[in-house]
Amino acid sequence: MVNRLLALKTNIEHWRSNKMQFIDKIIGKYDVKQLDLQWSNCELLKDDKDHFTLRGLKIFIKLLIQKLVLLGIKDVHVISDSTIAWWNYDNDSNFNNVASDLFIYECKRKGINASINAINGAGFRKRYDEGLDFPSLLNNTSINSYTTILIIGGWNDESIDRETIESSINNFMRIYRNKFY
Q1: 7 pairs with which residues across the strands?
Q2: Which one, 9, 41, 92, 176, has least CB within 10 Å?
């Protein structure tokens, strides 16, 4: 069995845009199963509609794990932006890994072995100069060929031009193929 590659759809809810539709289209050109969740059930912060409340994060994690269980996933490595990483920091911006630990714990409860790289502000191109973009995170990850990779994000790339986004997604896919095929 070889890796499976999954991605949450980006052109959803209030994040809908031509750019997100473009990202989903480019990802769709590859053998990537795109997942949709019932995002409206996940409560957002009142003053920041891009991030969940802690309660909303817990619901998001529950919905996401339900999808993974339905797909029969036993091992997953998540590459995420602040969708998960936001709650890895306390109110004083001190790193505590709470959200990533919660995701791993809840996966374990459902029989899924999980690991995660969750980076605020990351995207297919965003944070490239720091080596914290999705292709770099994938390239620097050590997982076996039985592990499913799940991409959560792309919204931070809204300001990036289409050509650069497409090139970055192509680079991600090249790294994926080189590492796992």
Answers
A1: 34, 151
A2: 92
Could you count the other beta carbons within 10 Å of the beta carbon of residue 137?
22
- Domain regions of the chain by residue span: 5-180
Quote the radius of gyration of the chain (alpha carbons, Å).
15
Contact by Cβ (8 Å): 176, 4:
no
User: Phi then psi for 51, rounded to 5 degrees?
Assistant: -135, 150
**Residue 153 pLDDT greater than 90, yes or no:** yes
Token pair, residue 145, equals: 């060929």
d(CA 113, CA 109): 9
Which is nearest to 73 in space by CA: 104, 29, 107?
107
What is the amino acid identity at position 67? Answer: K
